[in-house]
């Protein structure tokens, strides 16, 4: 999508959200008019924070402390919107319960207080959660694999804004401490123009593993000159899998590692995923496929044993997970797709939008491929 059109559409959505919060939540709170006025001023300031966020994300450089403040309103307003929906439904139910006016007024005041407390608590908890990148360890059984291999999976880092050089340096240190056989990055690595990302990206050149670092494009790479991103990654000695495969390990003891472009390429008619090409000339060993979006699994044949994906962020903020689930077959974790094919979905190592997570922690995944009959 054109950045200008996305900017307009994004702001349009939050105008509607603000209107709903104002008319269906604030207007019905049993508080003084002056307090409702201050609440609406808060919404107004938050909306301009979103404009600042969009400018900082795509057009300007702000100090990190200011960018942090601009980032928060997206998550705060989303959680407030979800609270307003629950409040609206609860208020409608309360009006229909046959109880005395005195008791109804009591329950209404309790609803007002608990709704405001809920929105505040969830916002604070979400900000705290985003600071913690968890190490997820998982063993995955792979048939006909001759020996174990350890993989570190990163995904959806979204370099830009708060995802800066220090953030990447910390990730690199943590991954290097795992002493893995290879590192895979399953897309959405960069979310700003390459000229602004180059110094930050260079930190990934310090990743250490036995067989190197491998990358496949996500949909966000298409927004920021995918050709330049791929070229820069190659200069850092990161192997970009462009509808192709490589063999990992010693002869007859390893596995095929394949990778495809993201399905966003179908829209652009450029950098289009081609599974047949990616799986051509495979050796007679198990195959692991890197594909950014879980729903690409519908195109995967029985030549693949395991698919590694990202994209979903695990929903990032809890209520949003239900919308993501409408689009993607798997949200996070390991799943047995059919009798042979498994898929693991990383919840994202960074975050997009607000530095907030609720019900879906950021993760670095340590995957051990375990031989099995």
Q: In summary, what is this structure?
A:
The protein is of the alpha/beta class and 373 residues long. Helices cover 42% and strands 17% of the residues.
Written description of the protein model:
α7 links the parallel β4 (213-216) and β5. The protein is elongated. The chain has two domains: 3-130, no CATH class; 133-372, Purple Acid Phosphatase, chain A, domain 2 (4-Layer Sandwich). It contains ten helices and twelve strands. It has a six-stranded mixed β-sheet with strand order 1-12-2-3-4-5, with helices on one face. Strands 6-7-8-9-11-10 form a six-stranded mixed β-sheet. α1 runs antiparallel to α2, α1 crosses α3 (64-96) and α2 (33-58) packs across α3 (64-96). By secondary structure, the chain is of the alpha/beta class. Helices cover 42% and strands 17% of the residues.
Secondary structure topology:
Blueprint: H1 3-24, H2 33-58, H3 64-96, H4 101-130, E1 133-143, E2 149-154, H5 165-178, E3 182-186, H6 194-201, E4 213-216, H7 226-235, E5 239-240, E6 244-248, E7 255-259, H8 265-268, H9 275-278, E8 287-290, E9 306-309, H10 321-327, E10 333-336, E11 342-345, E12 362-372
Parallel strand pairs: 1-12, 2-3, 3-4, 4-5, 7-8, 8-9, 9-11
Antiparallel strand pairs: 2-12, 6-7, 10-11
